[in-house]
Amino acid sequence: MAELKIVTDSTSDLSKQYLQDNDIHVVPLNLTIDGESYIDQVDITSEEFIEKVEADADVKTSQPPIGKFIELYDKLGADGSEIISIHMTSGLSGTYQTAVQASQMTDSKVTVIDSKSISYGLGYQIKQIVEWKNKQVAVADIEKQVIELQKNIKLYVVIGQLHQLIKGGRISKTKGLIGNMIKIKPVGTLIDGKIELVHNSRTQNSSIQFLKKEVAHFIENHNVKAIGIAHANIMQFVDKVKKHFSEEFDFSDFDVNTTTPIISAHTGQGAIGLVVLKS
To answer: Among 34, 40, 213, 235, whose Cα sits 20 to 30 Å from the Cα of 219?
Structure first.
């Protein structure tokens, strides 16, 4: 059986250590900050990026160039290895589409998967693929099982600052200005891979109450397998969420990291992404 190699992008919020230990190859996204270009997680960390957002820098994100994918696929497949390339939701970025095009321009055998998620929602799919790879599950079976796994993952995001969403054209100016005046904390979720706002909270506590209700409904009679919290420089909010969720769902082993710039560019400082994986 040919060896399997795993490729992803820089939006999984998994630790550098985990990615290195499991030989996961990362094609990073590009960031533009006040007109200067940076490579995500190479030239700038998630923490440094949030500092720029806080300083009201003009930030934009863009998918990796196709050449980067082709080069990596050529290199990884040169020894006959198969490649699984799994990426952030195609609803928020053209990265998946670029990977698909690149897979058609290489002699290597590449299977490209749209994770339909981002942050730990992508990260948990990668972790599961690593487990299947170690058990030598065939690529075609992994692809089928990932699609099933996606049904057990739910992502919510509590927006930190509305002006980032207005800047990015994600919500209208009037809605945003009113929201900023009355300090609304909108909650969004991924529906078909796109962020849809589903609830307006006035406070952190009311957004946590909403999330608890939503997550309980999502889990129903299953168990919680993993909870990931990615944040935009707001640890006290993360600690509150952990406290409430450990009491509510009898769960203590949270994954926590600073969120990918691809999320914080839209949600602003003070946002959190909550990802739940049910068994």
So the answer is: 235
Opening angle at CA 47, ends 42 and 52, nearest 5: 95
Tell me the pLDDT tens digit for each residue of 237-248: 999 999 999 999
As a whole number of angstroms, the distance between CA 141 and CA 181 comes to 51
- What residues contact residue 205 under an 8 Å CB cut-off, 6+ apart? 240
Tell me if the pTM is above 0.70.
yes
Both tokens of 72, joined, read 């990596």
The model's pLDDT over 21-74, given as tens digits with 9 standing for 90+, comes to 999 999 999 999 999 999 999 999 999 998 888 888 888 889 999 999 999 999
The CA angle 273-102-14, to the nearest 5 degrees, is: 25
φ/ψ (deg, to 5) at 68: -65, -40
Phi and psi of 192, rounded to 5°? 50, 40
